[in-house]
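Consider the following assembly input.
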Amino acid sequence: MEEQDTTPQGRAPGRHRDGSRSAKTYLIGLALAAILTLASFWAAQSGLVYGPAVPILLAALAVGQMGVHLVFFLHISSGPEDTNNILALAFGVFVVGLVVFGSMLIMANLNANMMPATPAMQMQP
Amino acid sequence: MTAIAASSVPREMDAGDVPLSQRGPASPEIVVRFGFWLFLLSDIVIFAALFAAYAVLSKETAGGPSGAQLFDRTHTLIETGCLLASSFTCGMMSLAVERLQKMAIYLWAGVTFALGLAFVLMEIFEFSRMVAEGAGPTHSAFLSAFFTLVGTHGLHVTIGLCWLVVMAAQVGTLGLRPMVMRRLLCFGLFWHALDIVWIGVFTIVYLGAG
């Protein structure tokens, strides 16, 4: 299996680069992911973080943990043999960003343009 | 078709010397797993649509309970721990696959299955508690979006558990032939991708509700 690591066509996602050290890679990934998870839960409930900054901190921790999973568990790297995987991932992230932020932007805009509800409208079932 | 063509590609050629157009098709190993990678990314796009629905509807509680009143963070933390640990044991299983150690595959597959099952059971417990409290998916737009998003993830995990059982049976009956090994490694990709989606779920749904 090892000699397939350097085929001219690139590398499959999830393929380990170094067979002997990959158990260590998973352990490092597990430790980093556990630290980031605990940090997220801590940031959400300890009142120590400045309130309005909490969502941004949570988003940063989540993106960091997703990165840890990609690198240490899925073994996606920035090397030339990973070009296809990275391109597909970049397109996936692009579509995800369009769908999520596009929906939120459009719905917030529609919401802001709604007529204010009058008491008579709220009475209707 | 790729298997025959790939074997005719001389392995000693250096990638730098051969133009991309003349390198020939990739090995089934790479083709299958790249295809599965594309499937996973499209699956994540489905989750993106559900996340967008949840983000838009999360404040529309229709006078019912809000997320902050419903969710128990300790419960979520234990669920997260189960899924993260199962992601690690699944990685150890794919190492055992590459080293062709059958007993280690069974061992790590068993641990992965147990942790995944614990996750699913905790989620079922949470859902049934919420429905019993009158906060079922029909109560408000927020709860509809919540049950769809978290339920779809739970469904994926459940399907993954079924897949894991099938793969353990295939290792037993078919042995570690290349086809079975490819499927086992694809299962590993699937399981890690589910854990990535869960990071989004616990951050946006459970921690964002506070």
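The mean pLDDT of chain A is 81. Ask yourself how this observation constrains the way the partners meet.
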